[in-house]
Amino acid sequence: HRKSIDLDFFGIFPDDSFENIFKSLQSLGKAEVMKRSKSILVFSINGVKVDFVDYSHYHWISSPIQEEGILMASDKDISAMKISAITGRGTKKDFWDLYYLLENYSLKDILKMYGQKYPDGSEYLALKSLIYFNDADENEDPSPTHKVKWDQIKDRIRSEHKEYMDNLNL
Description:
By secondary structure, this protein is α+β, with helices and mostly antiparallel strands. The protein has helices at residues 17-26, 75-88, 92-101, 107-117, 123-130, 134-137, 150-166; strands at 6-11, 31-36, 40-45, 48-54, 65-67, 70-72. Strands 1-4-3-2 form a 4-stranded mixed β-sheet, covered by helices on one side. Strands 5-6 form a two-stranded antiparallel ribbon. A hairpin with a 3-residue loop joins β2 and β3 (40-45).
């Protein structure tokens, strides 16, 4: 549904893995360290941003999918991670991804997955973030592979949000 601009790898990385990862990436081309902390390593490889995120504090809510020898997060895990990303940064590409995830899951189901994956996460903050588009409005549109407009994405998410809120038993 859109061309990705970066690569994200989630896993359990031993403390001494930085040097091995960096050496491996250097074999692919010009590798630069952009950020290094206890839980994340961010590199640029030939101008492509590549993140390695220590995921030892979180569990997978569904078994990873294996394609061509590569383990990838399931749609359920990606759905939960998108809510977390929207809550944390709210970029246009995250809303864009959520729009397509809503073709397979209701917002109620996605928020349930978010709660399973991030038990310390705030559903209240997630719900507020889901309809706050001001920052994302300033982002460039991702390179879409389908003809959907930003206003359609916001309208769909607002509609799903309203339906969810209308069905809450308060």
